[in-house]
Amino acid sequence: MPHARREMVRETFVDRPGRALLVLRKNQDRRVRGGHPWVFSNEVQAIQGEASDGDLVEVTDFRGAFLGRAYLNRRSLICARLLTRGRDEIDVEFFVKRLQRAVQLREAVYPGEQALRLVYGESDQLPGLVIDRYGDWLAVQITTLGIEARAELVRAAIERVLAPRGVMRLGDSPLRALEGLALSRAVWWGEVPERIELDHGGFRLEVDLHHGQKTGLFLDQRENRGRAEARARGQRVLDLFCYQGEWALHAARGGAAEAVAVDSSRAALEAAARNAERNGLADRVRLREGDCFDVARELERAGEHFGLVVLDPPALVKSRARLAAGARAYRELNRVAMALLSEGGT
Q: Does some domain include residue 334?
């Protein structure tokens, strides 16, 4: 970033301490003191001073003892999220330091990894911000009003710390709606190709940040896919909700007798087919398009059995209103999966 633009962003978006106070009710400070970064609306006694949603507030207990600085959103059940337990200015330098620390931690554990979650919200004291790296490109999710209001600060920090070739803003998470934010997905800056090819898990894979699910790949299942590969030899393996087929690829490489990958998305299965072909496993992975619940029941009726069944469904309970229906769906899915398992299967 040019020096002049960096200074302009910093001067425009500096948040000064002391603008407003969020005072907690008596005995409602224990969770925050214990390290929890959220303040719920029913824990608030008063907001003193002028503060709009998205603004920073100083959080205190009912006696006025300082607990930290948070951003406010009265429209959310989580009405405040702590950014710091000190009196830091929330400026470009603040985000630069947090990003540097997060990146150092990941690269210490996964040195040289091309596909990696670099920032994960509250885990890195950056609630509402998720950053995934795919080679020279980034996928960024901003899910809260407080970070949305400071998006230019985040951008300036990303440019300084990571210098990506392009960044995709993935603003289509339903969490944004809970914060009163619009849903969208678009290139934030730079150029992001339709398909990014990179090495991940020992495979050459493609990532579609423009139209793919979530943030491109399901990075949180990296170790579990390795465990499945170690158990796959000689087994029939069923991969339900397969997306781009990573579980099936691991099973095939691990010596599975057969790897069947099922998904309702034709685009996902086409990507899975390309991934299998790219890695020399096309003849060992069988792809099937269909509703995974229906396909699983059909396999059950046919008396099919598998030594290893993988379930990685989408979220079926996205709100309290969906709890009962979602719980029934999860129970049915697990029931069918267990019915499909061979004796001693996993």
A: yes
